[in-house]
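Thread: Newbie trying to understand structure tokens

Hi all, I'm a second-year student working on a class project, and my supervisor (Dr. K.) asked me to get a predicted structure for one chain before our next meeting. I've only ever worked with sequences, so writing a 3D structure as a token string is new to me. If someone could post the tokens and maybe explain what I'm looking at, I'd be very grateful. Here's the chain:
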Amino acid sequence: EKIDRMESECIRILNETDAEIESLRHDLEVRKRQAKSAEERYHDTRKKVVDLEGELRQMHKKAVSKYVNLTLIQSDAWYLVERIASKTVGNAEKRWGRHYY
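---
Reply by user tm_fold:
Sure, no problem. This is what the structure looks like when written as tokens:
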């Protein structure tokens, strides 16, 4: 009878252990799927970040180019205005004298 109790106790412990192992295997599979999903999301997000960084560099390059072009246009415009003003004043001085303005 003692051997039967020990055997049944051993079987009970073995069944509990098997159940716990099965539960842990299931949890491990769930965690593996979650890790794989998280890794895929990370790679997708990283790719998006790299693409956005490229777009940002292009936008910055265009903005700098546009700023430089506008600055040059502004500089040329001021130079043209100064030349026209200088010629106008010069012509007015020739025609009406230095005290015209």
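A couple of things are worth pointing out once you decode it. The longest helix spans residues 2-96. The chain is about 95% helix and 0% strand. Feel free to ask follow-ups in this thread.
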